[in-house]
Automatic annotation (TrEMBL):
Organismal lineage: Bacteria, Bacillati, Actinomycetota, Actinomycetes, Pseudonocardiales
Transmembrane segments: none
Keyword Metal-binding: yes
Native species: Saccharothrix carnea
Domain Fumarylacetoacetase-like C-terminal positions: 88-319
Protein name: 2-keto-4-pentenoate hydratase/2-oxohepta-3-ene-1,7-dioic acid hydratase in catechol pathway
Length: 326
């Protein structure tokens, strides 16, 4: 019996040429083919492909193997965010070491508790959360998404802009009230997100009882660089064993494994699906590890360059630009 051919590794993205509309592309190495030209149903976007994910996947494998198609050089194209989602779900406090660091850092100044005691208490709290509690998820705006190489404008009203590198699951088939054991079957693939935060605006100051304000602190235009590509789940491997690294101007600031997650991708997707219906193309951001700007005492400023990588998902590179006064 003949051995079936090994699948060709590919990724999906959104691309454009100067002065031309964007198109959904399939990427193999440094080549891109326009899926709107080669698939029978002529998808106009990556979201169109995800809307038919179960049927589309075998066709995408066929495209990846077809060297006779009209392939373009990736280097000659503009790379946009890989997908324009209908819904964005963001997560906080989901990396064990990060949350322990926060607990220690936010001890009252007059606390009699030592740092070692505080860390032990926080570690016990994280173990209990993993066993008994639920993820902390809130809603983001698709309008905050920008491309993986676009400049990030730092708004004049934001005094403490910070970075948050996050593994992002992209939904491929609708999911409602699915179990953790079923959840990953609904994930088409993964991509990189940098979920920027205005730290000074996370908590309301006009009335502290209101609590957090995720609209102001998370959703400025361009505050969610996404991509470069969506890598199908079959090429990513275990999402609980990936390395996340963010460098600021060449200096490593975040460097952690997704093994440090309190709630893994499956539990995160399952949890969101208990409340609402996840749709094809939706993004589930899974939290950021230790090493944010507040930890280092160094927030983003004009001219900073962030370079983000996650195992197997490519490199995202964005430059910060201060907003020009009107």
């Amino acid at each position: 019996m003949a051995t079936p051919p090994q699948p060709v590794r590919f990724a999906l993205g959104t691309f454009s040429e100067p002065g031309r509309p964007s198109f959904p592309g399939l990427v193999v190495d440094d080549r891109v083919v326009d899926l709107g030209q080669v698939l029978d149903w002529r998808p106009a976007s990556t979201l169109d492909v995800l809307d038919r994910w179960t049927d589309a996947l075998p066709a995408l494998h066929g495209v990846a193997r077809d060297g006779a198609l009209e392939w373009r050089a990736l280097g000659g194209l503009r790379v946009h965010a890989p997908v324009a989602p209908r819904q964005v779900f963001q997560s906080g406090a989901n990396y064990r070491q990060h949350v322990i660091d926060l607990v220690v850092a936010h001890r009252p100044a007059d606390s009699a508790e030592s740092e070692e005691q505080a860390r032990a208490r926080a570690a016990e709290l994280m173990d209990r959360r993993a066993r008994e509690d639920q993820p902390y998820v809130f809603i983001g705006l698709p309008s905050a998404i920008t491309g993986p190489y676009d400049d990030v404008v730092l708004p004049s009203w934001c005094a403490q802009p910070d970075w948050e590198l996050e593994l992002t699951a992209v939904i491929g088939t609708a999911a409602h009230r699915v179990s953790p054991e079923q959840a990953l079957r609904h994930v088409a693939g993964y991509t990189i997100a940098n979920d920027l935060t205005a730290r000074d605006l996370v908590f309301r100051t006009d009335m502290r009882e209101i609590g957090t304000d995720w609209l102001r602190s998370k959703n400025a235009p361009g505050f969610t660089p996404l991509g470069p590509c969506l890598v199908p789940a079959e090429f990513v491997g275990d999402p609980s064993d990936l390395r996340l690294t963010l460098k600021l101007n060449g200096e490593t600031m975040q460097d952690e494994s997704t093994q440090d997650m309190i709630f893994d991708v499956a539990r995160m997707v399952s949890y969101v699906s208990q409340i609402t219906t996840l749709l094809p193309g939706d993004l589930v951001l899974t939290g950021s590890p230790a090493g944010n700007g507040m930890h280092h005492g160094r927030l983003l400023r004009d001219g900073d360059v962030m370079e983000s990588t996650i195992t197997g998902l490519g490199v995202q590179r964005t430059r910060c630009v201060a907003e020009t006064p009107a």
